[in-house]
C-alpha cells in the first residue's frame, strides 16, 4: 500500500503539469492565427486607401498617385488561362495513366517517385529551367508563353498527385461493372471514372493554381518585368504579373510605392481567396450530392 | 476472381461468339485504345523529361561556370563578389546566409508547429479543430511576396523600434521570423497527420494505466509518431531553403559569413533573384553563376527531401 | 489492512449510459465480489464492453458519452464530481481485446505505469515480479530490452497483463482478452486468470461461453432491447447460470439458440 500513497501524492503535481502543457500547446496554436491577423491587418491598413478604379486601370508610373496594376492584373489572368490550358490535360492525363493504365513495373515506379521528388524542388529552380529551356533554347524570349510553360512545369507534380487521389477514390465496383459490359479501358475511364472524379480533380487543380499564381521567384528568373506600359496582346509579348509588381514596388525606398505594393497585395489576396472559395464551394456541392 | 476481370477482357472478346461478331469493331477499337494509351504514357513521361531538363540545364551551365572558376574556389571561398572587381566566387557566404535564416526559422517553426499539432491532434475539441485548420491553411496559402512585404514593412520596423534599435533595415532576423511563420502550418499539419495515425488502442492502454493526457501525449503518441514528425521537420526546412522572396526582400543582398542575425546577409535564392532581375545575357559569367548557385540549392533540397523520404520509410510499426 | 474475501468491491446502482441520444445501457445494478472472477456475457452489441469500460471510466474518452447513476468502488462513487478518472485507472487496470503493447521494449512496457505514477522503489524488481505474475518471465527474461512487437500475440497479451499488474491495481478489467489469440495462447491466459484471482478481482467480458464457464465464479448475462439498449437479464454464480438459468432468454442464449 506504500506505493499507492506515493502515487496519490504525485497525482496533483501531474495534473498541474498536464494543465500547463495544454495551455502551452493552445498558446502555440494561436501564434499562427495571431500572425495571420497581423499580416492581414498590416496589408489592409497600408493598402486599402490606394485601392480604386484608377489603380486597377492604370499602367505603372514613376508617380505613385498615377500608378496602377492593369498590365500586372491582366498578365496574371493571361498566365492563369495559359497555365490551366497546358497543365490540366497534361496532369490529368498523367494521373489517368498512372492510376488506370500503368503496369506495375520499374518505369511506373520511376515516374511515381520522380513526381513526388519534383514536388519538393524549389520554384526558383523551375525558373532556371524555364530560363534555359523556353527563353533561350526554344527562343520564346522573356514572354508570357515562357512564363506559362514554366509555371506549368512547376504545378504539374501537384496537379498529378491530387488528380491521382481523386481517381483512386472512385469505387472499383463502378469500373468492374463497366468492364463486365465489355467496355474498353478508355471507355471505362472516359464514361465512368472521369465523370465521378471530375469535381475532386477540379478542386485540387484550382488549389494548385492558386499556389502558382502567388509564385514570384520563378517568374522573376524567367523574366517577368514590372514596368510594362501595354496590355499583352500575343503570346510572345513580354509580361508582368501581380507578385512581381508587388516585389518591385515593395523594394523601392519611397513609402508611397510600398503602399502601392500593399494595395496590389490586397488584389492578389482577393484573387486567391476567390479561387479557394470556388474550390471549397465545388467540393461542398458535390460532397452533398454523393451522399444522396 | 473479380479482380481478374479487367485483365481478361481482350482475350475473352475474341474467343467467345460475341467476340467474333464484334471482331471488326474490336480491331478499330484496339487501335484507338493503343493510341490513347500512348498519349497518356507521354503525359506521364513529361515529369521525367522535366527532371532530365532540370539536371541538364543546371549541370551544363554549372560546368561552363567551373571552366572559369575553379571548383575548389567555389566550394571553399569565403568571399562572394560577382558584381564588382576583383570578382570572387566563394559560395560559403551565400550558404552561410541561407543556413542562418534556416536556423532562425526552425527555432520558430519547429517547436510552435509541433505544439500546434499536439493541440490539434490530442486536445482540441472537434469544433475548435474545424475552425483552426482552415485558418492555418490560409496562412500556408499566403504568397511569399506578401510575407516579404510583411517582413520588410512591419516586422523589421517593429523590432527596430522596440528591441534592436541598431539592427540594419535588411537583416536575417525578420526574414527568419517570417519564414518560420510561413513553414509553421506545414510542420503543424504534417506532424498532426503523423500523430493522428497513432492507433487509438495505444492511447487507451496508457489511459488504462492511469496516465494523464499529458503523459499519453508525451510518452506514447509523440514517440510513436516520431518518424512522421521528423519528416515534417525535414520537409519544412527544405521548403524554407528554397524560399526566395522573403529573403530577397527582408534579408538584404550583402553576402557575408556571419552568425549575427541583426546584420544584412544574402541567401542563395536571393542572389538568383538579384541577378535575374537585371537582364543578364546568356553566356556571361553572371548568367552561369546563377545556375551554379541553383545547383547548390538543388543539391541541398534534394538531400533534405531524400532524407525526409527515408525517415518516413523507417516509420515505427504499431 | 484486513480484507473481507466475501465483500463487494465494486457496485453499480441504476447505471445508465448514453452515446449522444442512443442509450447503450439501462438500469444496471450489480455487485462485484472481491477476489473472484466475474464474467460478462451476451450477444454482440449488448453493451457488455460498455459496462466494463464504465468501471474505469474509459467511456469518458469517447466524445458525447455520458453516464447516470452510480458506480461505487470501496463505497466511493466513481462518477462523483470530485472523482478524477485518471486516479481511478491506476487502481482499476484494464486489458484490451487486441494486444496493444507500446512500440517500446518489453521492460519499458512493463515499467510504463510505475514510471508515470512516480514509483520510487526498485523498478527492476517490480518489472520482474509483474512479468512473473503474468507467467511471462521465463520466456522473456533474456530479451527484456527487445521491442515488444517481436513477441507472439499470446506473449504480447500476457505482457499487457504484466503492464497492468505493475501499477498494483485492485481490479483488472479484461475485454475479450483472448479473442485475437489461438487456442494454446488462450489456455495460458485462462490458467493465468485462475492464478491472478488470489490477489486481484477480475471482471472479464467474453463472447465465448465455455470460457466464461471455465474461468468465472459469477456470470452476468446482458441482452439488448429492440432499440439496442443493453439490460442486465440475469446475474449469479456461474454454475447456476449455466446449469439452471432462471430466465428463458439466458437459457436460449446458453444453449446456443441465438446470439
UniProtKB/TrEMBL annotation, chain A:
It comes from the Bacteria. InterPro entries: MetI-like, MetI-like_sf, Phosphate_PstA. Residues 73-279 form the ABC transmembrane type-1 domain. CDD domains: TM_PBP2. This is Phosphate transport system permease protein PstA. GO terms for biological process: phosphate ion transmembrane transport. GO terms for molecular function: phosphate transmembrane transporter activity. It comes from Candidatus Hakubella thermalkaliphila. It is a multi-pass membrane protein. The chain crosses the membrane at residues 21-45, 77-98, 118-138, 188-210, 216-236, 257-282. Keywords: Cell membrane, Membrane, Transmembrane, Transmembrane helix, Transport. The lineage of its organism: Bacteria, Bacillati, Actinomycetota, Actinomycetota incertae sedis, Candidatus Hakubellales. It is found in: Cell membrane. The keyword Transport applies. It holds the Pfam family BPD_transp_1. Belongs to the binding-protein-dependent transport system permease family. CysTW subfamily.
From TrEMBL, chain B:
It is found in: Cell membrane; Membrane. Keywords: Cell membrane, Membrane, Phosphate transport, Transmembrane, Transmembrane helix, Transport. Belongs to the binding-protein-dependent transport system permease family. CysTW subfamily. InterPro entries: MetI-like, MetI-like_sf, Phosphate_PstC. It is a multi-pass membrane protein. The keyword NAD does not apply. Part of the binding-protein-dependent transport system for phosphate; probably responsible for the translocation of the substrate across the membrane. One of its GO terms (molecular function) is phosphate transmembrane transporter activity. Residues 95-308 form the ABC transmembrane type-1 domain. GO terms for biological process: phosphate ion transport. This is Phosphate transport system permease protein. It comes from Candidatus Hakubella thermalkaliphila. GO terms for cellular component: plasma membrane. The chain crosses the membrane at residues 34-59, 91-114, 135-155, 167-187, 220-241, 290-312.
Automatic annotation (TrEMBL), chain C:
InterPro entries: AAA+_ATPase (IPR003593), ABC_transporter-like_ATP-bd (IPR003439), ABC_transporter-like_CS (IPR017871), P-loop_NTPase (IPR027417), PstB-like (IPR005670). Keywords: ATP-binding, Nucleotide-binding, Translocase, Transport. One of its GO terms (biological process) is phosphate ion transmembrane transport. One of its GO terms (molecular function) is phosphate transmembrane transporter activity. The keyword Plastid does not apply. This is Phosphate transport system ATP-binding protein. One of its GO terms (cellular component) is membrane. The keyword Nucleotide-binding applies. It comes from the Bacteria. Residues 10-254 form the ABC transporter domain.
Amino acid at each position: 500500500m506504500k506505493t499507492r500513497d506515493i502515487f496519490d501524492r504525485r497525482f496533483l503535481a501531474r495534473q498541474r503539469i498536464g494543465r500547463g502543457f495544454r495551455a502551452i500547446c493552445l498558446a502555440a496554436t494561436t501564434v499562427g492565427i495571431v500572425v495571420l491577423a497581423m499580416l492581414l491587418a498590416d496589408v489592409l491598413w497600408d493598402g486599402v486607401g490606394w485601392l480604386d478604379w484608377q489603380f486597377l486601370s492604370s499602367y505603372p508610373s514613376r508617380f505613385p498617385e498615377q500608378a496602377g496594376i492593369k498590365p500586372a492584373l491582366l498578365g496574371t489572368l493571361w498566365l492563369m488561362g495559359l497555365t490551366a490550358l497546358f497543365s490540366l490535360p497534361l496532369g490529368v492525363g498523367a494521373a489517368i495513366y498512372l492510376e488506370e493504365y500503368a503496369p506495375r513495373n520499374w518505369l511506373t515506379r520511376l515516374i511515381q517517385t520522380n513526381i513526388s521528388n519534383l514536388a519538393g524542388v524549389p520554384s526558383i529552380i523551375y525558373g532556371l529551367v524555364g530560363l534555359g529551356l523556353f527563353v533561350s533554347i526554344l527562343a520564346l524570349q522573356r514572354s508570357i508563353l515562357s512564363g506559362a510553360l514554366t509555371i506549368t512545369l512547376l504545378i504539374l507534380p501537384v496537379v498529378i498527385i491530387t488528380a491521382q487521389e481523386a481517381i483512386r477514390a472512385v469505387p472499383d465496383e463502378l469500373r468492374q461493372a463497366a468492364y463486365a459490359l465489355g467496355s474498353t479501358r478508355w471507355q471505362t475511364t472516359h464514361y465512368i471514372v472521369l465523370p465521378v472524379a471530375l469535381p475532386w480533380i477540379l478542386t485540387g487543380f484550382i488549389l494548385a493554381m492558386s499556389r502558382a499564381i502567388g509564385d514570384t521567384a520563378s517568374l522573376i528568373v524567367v523574366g517577368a518585368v514590372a514596368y510594362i506600359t501595354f496590355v499583352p496582346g500575343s503570346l510572345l509579348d513580354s509580361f508582368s504579373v501581380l507578385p512581381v509588381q508587388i516585389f518591385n514596388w515593395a523594394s523601392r525606398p519611397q513609402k508611397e510605392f510600398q503602399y502601392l505594393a500593399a494595395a496590389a497585395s490586397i488584389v492578389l489576396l482577393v484573387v486567391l481567396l476567390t479561387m479557394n472559395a470556388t474550390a471549397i464551394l465545388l467540393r461542398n456541392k458535390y460532397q452533398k450530392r454523393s451522399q444522396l | 476472381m473479380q479482380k481478374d476481370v479487367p485483365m481478361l477482357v481482350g482475350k475473352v472478346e475474341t474467343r467467345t461468339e460475341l467476340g467474333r461478331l464484334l471482331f471488326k469493331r474490336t480491331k478499330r477499337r484496339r487501335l484507338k485504345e493503343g493510341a490513347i494509351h500512348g498519349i497518356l504514357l507521354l503525359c506521364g513521361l513529361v515529369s521525367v523529361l522535366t527532371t532530365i531538363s532540370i539536371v541538364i540545364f543546371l549541370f551544363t551551365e554549372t560546368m561552363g561556370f567551373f571552366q572559369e572558376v575553379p571548383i575548389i574556389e567555389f566550394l571553399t571561398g569565403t568571399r562572394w563578389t560577382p558584381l564588382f572587381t576583383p570578382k570572387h566566387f566563394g559560395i560559403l557566404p551565400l550558404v552561410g546566409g541561407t543556413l542562418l535564416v534556416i536556423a532562425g526559422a526552425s527555432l520558430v517553426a519547429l517547436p510552435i508547429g509541433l505544439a500546434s499539432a499536439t493541440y490539434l491532434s490530442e486536445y482540441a475539441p472537434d469544433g475548435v479543430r474545424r475552425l483552426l485548420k482552415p485558418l492555418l491553411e490560409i496562412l500556408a496559402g499566403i504568397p511569399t511576396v506578401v510575407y516579404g512585404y510583411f517582413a520588410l514593412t512591419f516586422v523589421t520596423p517593429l523590432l527596430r523600434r522596440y528591441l534592436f534599435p541598431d539592427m540594419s533595415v535588411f537583416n536575417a532576423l525578420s526574414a527568419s521570423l517570417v519564414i518560420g511563420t510561413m513553414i509553421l502550418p506545414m510542420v503543424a499539419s504534417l506532424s498532426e497527420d503523423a500523430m493522428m495515425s497513432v492507433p487509438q488502442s495505444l492511447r487507451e492502454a496508457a489511459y488504462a494505466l492511469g496516465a494523464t493526457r499529458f503523459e499519453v501525449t508525451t510518452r506514447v503518441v509523440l514517440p510513436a509518431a516520431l518518424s512522421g514528425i521528423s519528416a515534417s521537420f525535414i520537409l519544412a526546412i527544405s521548403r524554407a531553403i528554397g524560399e526566395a522572396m522573403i529573403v530577397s526582400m527582408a534579408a538584404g543582398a550583402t553576402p557575408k559569413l556571419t552568425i549575427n542575425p541583426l546584420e544584412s546577409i544574402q541567401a542563395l535564392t536571393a542572389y538568383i533573384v538579384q541577378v535575374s532581375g537585371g537582364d543578364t545575357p546568356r553566356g556571361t559569367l553572371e548568367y552561369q553563376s546563377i545556375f551554379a548557385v541553383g545547383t547548390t540549392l538543388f543539391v541541398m533540397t534534394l538531400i533534405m527531401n531524400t532524407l525526409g523520404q527515408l525517415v518516413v520509410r523507417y516509420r515505427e510499426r504499431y | 489492512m484486513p480484507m473481507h474475501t466475501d465483500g463487494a468491491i465494486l457496485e453499480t446502482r441504476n447505471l445508465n449510459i448514453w452515446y449522444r441520444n442512443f442509450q447503450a445501457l439501462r438500469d444496471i445494478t450489480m455487485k462485484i465480489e472481491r477476489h473472484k472472477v466475474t464474467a460478462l456475457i451476451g450477444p454482440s452489441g449488448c453493451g457488455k464492453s460498455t459496462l466494463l469500460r464504465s468501471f474505469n471510466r474509459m467511456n469518458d474518452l469517447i466524445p458525447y458519452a455520458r453516464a447516470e447513476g452510480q458506480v461505487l468502488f470501496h463505497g466511493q462513487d466513481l462518477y462523483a464530481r470530485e472523482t478524477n478518472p485518471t486516479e481511478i485507472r491506476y487502481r482499476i487496470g484494464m486489458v484490451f481485446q487486441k494486444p496493444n503493447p507500446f512500440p517500446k521494449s518489453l521492460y519499458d512496457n512493463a515499467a510504463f505505469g510505475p514510471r508515470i505514477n512516480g514509483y520510487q522503489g526498485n523498478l527492476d524488481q517490480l518489472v520482474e515480479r509483474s512479468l512473473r505474475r503474468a507467467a511471462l518471465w521465463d520466456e522473456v527474461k533474456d530479451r527484456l530490452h527487445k521491442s515488444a512487437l517481436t513477441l507472439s500475440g499470446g506473449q504480447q497479451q500476457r505482457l499487457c497483463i504484466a503492464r497492468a499488474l505493475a501499477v498494483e491495481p485492485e481490479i483488472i478489467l479484461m475485454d475479450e482478452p483472448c479473442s485475437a489469440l489461438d487456442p494454446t495462447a488462450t489456455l495460458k491466459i485462462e490458467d493465468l486468470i485462475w492464478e491472478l484471482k488470489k490477489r486481484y478481482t477480475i471482471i472479464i467480458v467474453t463472447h465465448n461461453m465455455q470460457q466464461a464457464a471455465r474461468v468465472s465464479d459469477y456470470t452476468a448475462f446482458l441482452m439488448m432491447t429492440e432499440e439496442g439498449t443493453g439490460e442486465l437479464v440475469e446475474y449469479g454464480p456461474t454454475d447456476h447460470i449455466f446449469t439452471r438459468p432462471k430466465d428463458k432468454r439466458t437459457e436460449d442464449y446458453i444453449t446456443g439458440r441465438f446470439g
